[in-house]
Design brief:
The complex is a heterodimer of chains A (112) and B (114).
Chain A (H helix, E strand, L loop, with lengths): L4 E3 L2 E4 L5 E6 L6 E7 L5 E8 L14 E5 L5 E5 L8 E8 L5 E3 L3 E5 L1
Parallel strand pairs in A: 2-10
Antiparallel strand pairs in A: 1-3, 3-7, 4-5, 4-8, 6-7, 8-9, 8-10
Chain B lengths: L2 E4 L3 E5 L4 E3 L1 E4 L4 E8 L5 E7 L5 E3 L5 E5 L4 E6 L8 E9 L6 E3 L3 E6 L1
Classes of the chains: A mainly beta (112), B mainly beta (114).
Chain lengths: 112, 114
């Protein structure tokens, strides 16, 4: 079946603009994660959705970042008033009941 | 609380020689442990996982990892490195508690010298 998909694959934006990044998880996976990977860095956890529970937002770096998950499936990560330090690859993963995460290809965000 | 430490940021081996990538963890609950691989400009791929069954876990591409509770380690090994193994490897711990928080290590870049 289809894996995790993310769109767009690349996004170039100007400082101060808002961006939306989309993640389509694997059907049937109830848990969804967003991570950020800056150049040469490891993965930075951003937010985690599990079923109908309140999301774990503890990794969001500022209030400019928000995410929602509609209908327990598709998720959107929104970054408002983008800054140059937001430039990174944003990765989405959905998780099986056995705790295996399957990652999407990522969205490379460049803020000019 | 949980954490994971990858002891080496870079490892360099010659093709055909053994690979050892070290990972130590701490966890309040019985952990699930994973290794992921990320090839240059590619997505993250699950290599293998430990979830309280056999302590020696076999993964894809000839990799293995052994869970040692007494040493709180989950080192990744491969008997003979191949050029295609050059990538970045991430050790991951997940609590088996209710919320299943996931923590990634900082990664180890493996270089394979011909």
């Amino acid at each position: 079946g289809a894996g995790v998909s993310q769109s767009p694959s690349n996004k170039v934006t100007e400082k101060g603009k808002d961006v939306e990044l989309r993640c389509d998880p694997i059907s049937g996976h109830t848990a969804l994660y967003w991570y950020r990977q800056s150049l040469g860095q490891g993965l930075e956890f951003l937010i985690y959705f599990q079923g109908n529970s309140a999301p774990d937002k503890s990794g969001l770096p500022s209030d400019r970042f928000s995410a929602e998950r509609t209908g327990g499936s598709v998720s959107t990560l929104t970054i408002q008033r983008t800054q140059q330090e937001d430039s990174a690859v944003y990765l989405c993963a959905s998780r099986t009941i056995y705790n295996e995460q399957f990652f999407g290809p990522g969205t490379r965000l460049t803020v000019l | 609380a949980q954490s994971v430490t990858q002891l080496d940021s870079h490892v360099s081996v010659s093709e055909g020689t053994p690979v050892l990538l070290r990972c130590n963890y701490s966890s309040s609950y019985s952990p699930s442990l994973f290794w992921y691989v990320q090839h240059p400009n590619k997505g993250l791929q699950l290599l293998l996982k430990y979830t309280s069954a056999a302590t020696l876990v076999k993964g894809i591409n000839g990799f293995e990892a052994e869970f040692k509770k007494s040493e709180t380690s989950f080192h990744l090994t491969k008997p003979s490195a191949h050029m295609s193994d050059a990538a970045e490897y991430f050790c991951v711990v997940t609590d088996s508690g209710g919320y299943q928080k996931v923590t990634f290590g900082t990664g180890t870049k493996l270089q394979v010298i011909p």
